[in-house]
Amino acid sequence: MIFEALSFLSEEINEYFRNKLRIKEDKVVLSGIVDARGEIAIDGSNKIIVTLINIEKETTQTTVLGQHAANTAASPLQLNLYVMFSAYFNRGNYGESLRFISFILAYFQHKNVFNSQNSPGLDERIDKLIFELQVLSQDQLNNIWASLGAKYMPCVVYKVRMLNIDESIVREYRPEITTIENNSSLKS
């Protein structure tokens, strides 16, 4: 469900950028910031990188209607996600990176709740996503970037409330095959 929620979000913001800025290319990429070798994990530059930086259990869980307290083992796990939007732009493009961070802020100021009524592309297993801007201290921000193993980029962090997870909604993910390569070494 985490992948579905964040993939949906990336597509929504890409559509917002296409409409607002009249651009054709996708500017938003769902990815870690750096790979295992410590290098930037995406191809190209001039992108907004959407990265999951933390998951926490919702501590103010509500009881699902119709469930008895004795049956709490079957109740869904309610999670909050912490998502960072980082502006990875070429050297000399710092102003543009700030512009795109401003667009992210404006987007969530305008629309911070996603549900089936206002977002038809939202996975049917997701009831609602609520985005709250997180104000981080300089120390917290420094710790995040250090733990990611990357140099600081202009960024903003949002808390995404509440993703419900239970065993019945988690499915195996198989990526779609888009091309088939012809391997001539297999032919006799």
Task: Tell me the layout of helices and strands.
Blueprint: H1 2-21, E1 28-30, E2 47-57, E3 77-88, H2 94-110, E4 113-115, E5 128-134, H3 138-148, E6 155-165
Your description of this structure?
This protein has three helices and six strands, in the order H-E-E-E-H-E-E-H-E. The longest helix is centred in the first third of the chain and has 20 residues, at 2-21. It has a single domain (2-60, 75-165), classed as STM4215-like. The chain is globular, with a radius of gyration of 19 Å. The chain has 188 residues and is α+β, with helices and mostly antiparallel strands. A six-stranded mixed beta sheet has the order 1-2-3-6-5-4, covered by helices on one side. Pfam families: Pvc16_N. Residues 8-177 form the Pvc16 N-terminal domain. It comes from Pedobacter gandavensis. InterPro entries: Pvc16_N. This is DUF4255 domain-containing protein.
Quickly list its features:
single chain; 188 residues; alpha+beta; STM4215-like; six-stranded mixed beta sheet; 6 strands; 26% helix; globular; disordered C terminus
**Uncertain segments of ≥5 residues (pLDDT<50)?**
63-71, 183-188
Number of helices: 3
Q: Summarize the biggest pleated sheet.
A: 6 strands, mixed
Beta-strand percentage range: 25-35%
First-last Cα distance? 45 Å
Envelope shape? globular
Global mean pLDDT: 85
User: What structural class do you assign from the helix and strand content?
Assistant: alpha+beta
Computed CA radius of gyration, to the nearest angstrom:
19 Å
- CATH structural class: Alpha Beta
Question: What is the fold-level CATH name, i.e. the topology?
Answer: STM4215-like
CATH architecture: 2-Layer Sandwich
- Overall number of strands: 6
- What is the helical fraction, as a range of percent? 25-40%
Please state how the strands of the largest beta sheet are arranged side by side.
1-2-3-6-5-4
Domain Pvc16 N-terminal: 8-177
Protein name: DUF4255 domain-containing protein
Pfam families: Pvc16_N (PF14065)
Organism: Pedobacter gandavensis
